[in-house]
Amino acid sequence: MPAASELISPHSPRVSAARRLARRNFRGKERLFLAEGPQAVREAAAYGKETLVELFATVEAAERYADIIGEARGAGVRVHLADEDVIADISTTVTPQGLVGICQFLDTPFEDILKARPKLVAVLAHVRDPGNAGTVLRCADAAGAEAVVLTDASVDLYNPKAVRASVGSLFHLPVAVGVPVERAVQGLKDAGVRILAADGAGEDDLDDELDKGTMGGPTAWVFGNEAWGLPEETRALADAVVRVPIHGKAESLNLATAAAVCLYASARAQRASGGCRSVTQS
Fold it and tell me: Beta partners for 32?
C-alpha cells in the first residue's frame, strides 16, 4: 500500500533535480520537463517510448489515482511518495494536484512532419505567452490537426504553463520546435500545404474563404503574438492573410479563441464534399 512506503526526503537529490526543471536552461540541458496533474501524467504514461521517467505523488494522490501509479510502475517508472510540501516545492502551480511527472523531451523533427504530408497544421510564430501556446496546441489537437510547429521566435514548448495549458494534448500530436518561420512556411508550401496567416487586419474574411470553397485542401494556419499580431514580413510569406469576422461589438478575439475558430473552419471544409479528407477519416 502507498501509505506503507517511505516518503522521499525533501533534501533528496531527486527532489532538487526535479525542482530545477522549472528553469528553461536546466530543461534544455537535461532534455527533461515537468508534467503536473493527473491528466498530463496519465497522457505521459500512455504515450510510450519511455517518455515518463519519474513520478512524484502524495499518498492521497497515489491512492486516488492508483491506476496511473500502477501503469507507471508497470512501465518501470520510478515512483516517489512525497508529502505535500515536497510536491508544492517541485510544482509550479499555486494549488498542486498531488502528481508531478518528469518526462523526456518529445518534439519531432520538422522534416518528419513534412514527410507525413499533413493536411492541417498550426504554426505558432512569435507566440510568447506559454498559456496561449499550450491552449492553441490543445485546439489543434481537438480540431484534428496532424502537427504543430513552434518557430524559433516563440515560447518554450516545455514551459510548465504551456504544458499545463495543453491539458495532455502535448502527448497527442507531433510538435516541431525552434523552426525559423521562413523555413516552416517554405517547407510546408513545398509539401503542398496552403499557408493562411490569421490576423485581425487581414485582407480576406474567413466567411468569404469558406463560401468560396478554398479551404478544403491541406492548410497551415500561422498564428502570431496576441498583442501585436504578425510582422509584415511574416504576413508576406502567406498565401492569404485571413481575419475572423467580428459580427458583434467585441473589439477582437484572443489568440486561442481565434485559433480555434480558424482550425475548426479548416477541419469542417476538409471533411466536406470535395475536401482533402473523406467524411470517414478521423
Answer: 104
pLDDT at 279: 53
Q: Torsion angle of alpha carbons 70, 71, 75, 77, nearest 10°?
A: -60
User: How is residue 192 written as a grid cell?
Assistant: 503542398
pTM score of the predicted model: 0.91
Neighbours of 93 (CB within 10 A): 14
Does 226 score more than 90 pLDDT? no
The single-letter code of the amino acid at 245 is P
Residue 198 CA: distances (Å) to CA of 55, 111, 262, 263: 39, 24, 8, 10
Which residue, chain included where needed, has cell 502535448?
170
How far from 39 is each of 83, 100, 124, 157, 168, CA to CA, in Å? 20, 11, 24, 18, 6
| Mean pLDDT to the nearest integer, 220-239 | 90
In angstroms, the CA 22 to CA 18 distance is 8
d(CA 88, CA 61): 13
Q: At what angle do helices 130-143 and 255-271 cross, to 10 degrees?
A: 20
Cell triple for 29: 540541458
